[in-house]
Amino acid sequence: MDMTTSNPIHDDRVPTHNGLGHSPPAQVEPIPSEGDMYGDFWDPLFVIHNSNSTRKHRDPAGTPASPGHVPRHTQAQAPTEVQVLIQRVRQLEQKVFSQQEPENSVSAPHIQQRHPQARRTVCQANLLGRSHWLVGFAQFDTIVHTLNNRLQDDDMEFRALFFKCQRLSRVIQQQYSLRASSLQALDGSLPSQEACNVCVNAYCRSFESVLRILHVPTFQQEYNDMWTGSQPTSKLFMLKLQLVIAIGARVVNQSDMLGTPDMASRCVAWIQEAQQWLHAPGESLQASVDGIQLYCLVLLTQIVCAVDASLVYVSTGALLQKAQQLGLHRDPSHFPAIPVFQAEIRRRLWCTVCELVLQSSMDSGTPPLISCDEFDCRPPANLTDTNLGTTSEPEPSNILTQTSFSILLMRCLPIRVQVAKVLNSVQLDPSYSEVLRLGEELTAACHHNTQIIKSMSPDHEQPTLFQLELLNLLTYRFLLCLHQPFAMKARKNLAYYFSRRVCLETAIQILAGHPTTPSGQNVNDYLNVKRYSSGLFRDPHLLAFVTVGHEILCVTEGDWFSCQPVSPLTNNLSPTPNKSQQGPRTVLEEYVGLSECRLKDGAQIDIKTYVLLSCIIAQIKAAETRSPQDDAVLSAAVDSLERCHTILVDRYKSLAQSRESPQPLQVYGGSNVPCRLGKGPNDILDISETGEGEGWSDFDVSQAEWSLQVEYPDLDWNLLNTWSACVPGSDSEGS
């Protein structure tokens, strides 16, 4: 890499390098002040030292170049001249540093104090774009103010309660990992046939009806052959089946699993087994349509089962490259030799690949990896699976088939890609008129989909609640994120009132969902997915929560005039009263209850989110009664932590009872002091109450999109990281 290339972000801060790996004397800059620490952190040529607090540079080979280091190729050319130049550079650097003015320098004790925080940020840094839900949470920085002040007051009881809950969650998750490792050795082990039937049917009626991955009749035939033993079962099919069962198990109720033990651990083991197969050398089927299907199932299972869902964005890049390598991005009409059946399978699969890539971009707050200029694959035909590959003509759009929702998603894909690029791009900073234009196009596309669904013939099959909810989530989350930055400005500028209203109506619609459908449908499918899943099925709802909560709080405090939603933008598909008509605060309280269910049953134990959501509700109630908000927030934080502790202790006891002899575990805190947990369920209560942990670093938005710090100067972006900063030892790299 050419180190002479200037950094587009820090061009005025990064010194130009000569061939020696050092900077010319005239461009040596003083050590940055505290306000510049974030800028220097993102500069790859700058490292903070404890001892001399100088810049460390790298030579063209990429290795650190210390003051006495000389590149080998330079030594071979002119060793004497190089040594003279290096000595001269040393003298000039020392002279410049010694002549710095006091106000531009930083004392050594101050740098040593900042170094652990900077080192911790290096390990946990995430550059958040505008689509990340944490950007919206910055509206409640006063809550973090209150909690941070309590930690600074050395409230050992409050601190100990939080860290006990944190360590309990790690113990429980470690139990799942250990069981997954033991179950992975049981190759081909499945639940009972009755439980498998329930899960397979649940997957086919839910996710497969929106995100097309499999050809259901072919899959069902292989599934039946496996149980009858009439045909040999391939390893690839077993991997697909395991992932389908894992997804279906999160869709159905726990009572439908017929007492299947260790289902959460089985899901983890099955994901790991499929990932190993996908990355194993010598597997020719990896670069095939079957391999792409398995890859899509792996990513979807990670999201639904909350297993490393934060890493899905990285994996979608590999999925996209594999799909393009197979030519899925080109329409099959360019390849006359491909049969009609395979052509439609490829179109369906490309639609799912694009959707996974785009949604993971919104979850991670990073630019999308796809562009509509880079593919010409048309949407799939409106055909049922039984008619696929025959001479049958596609059904009209008002006839529901197993591909109808994939077609709706593909038709509004271009505008959603544009919105994702505008939100998370480093260079683009759209004007309000551009945001209004994009919002109008996106709303028109969503309304067009709604009209098609409403026009579907009542004489044929009707959409399920799960299909409507998932389509609503996959499309309207873009509208919420698009208007969110300007809705936050509406508090001081009424010109952005429209964005404020759009965000409120869209957020309530995402949280409340569609009205209850007629009896006979599985109305709990989507609710179960929200309860157990993460990523796509958690982050948009959290952004919607803070949007509605901030609206209620501002109206209650008299900062804004009331902006009650009149007609939700999504146009309800039924005259049945919607939950959103019950009141915004009722919707928030219901979601807090759902967050508590995550603690009881979910694979991802999210303590901090539950506590912060409870504090938001408490702050709203305090504002309504004109009582002190800080006291209400602190009381809610303690109560929610105590509730978390009770739930996690009960959950650990149930795990311990499910094993005849639970093995003792070791959990490391921030100080790397192990806390041994014995076989008895009460041993969990012996965890040290003075240990350290990572604090609230997950809610660090100090490194969010740089333009946000300029747009919202009244928000303290560094507050959400101070919880861990004030706890000794919180800079440990372990989680």
UniProtKB/TrEMBL annotation:
Biological process according to GO:
DNA-templated transcription
GO terms under cellular component: nucleus
Sequence segments annotated as region (Disordered):
1-35, 52-76
Q: Which UniProt keywords apply?
A: DNA-binding, Metal-binding, Nucleus, Transcription, Transcription regulation, Zinc
* InterPro entries linked: Fungal_TF_Env_Response, XnlR_reg_dom
Task: Drop me one GO molecular function for this one.
Answer: zinc ion binding
Ranges where the Xylanolytic transcriptional activator regulatory domain occurs: 312-386
Enumerate the transmembrane spans: none
Keyword Transmembrane attached = no
Q: Please name the source species.
A: Aspergillus transmontanensis
Its domain of life reads Eukaryota
Protein name according to UniProt: Fungal-specific transcription factor domain-containing protein
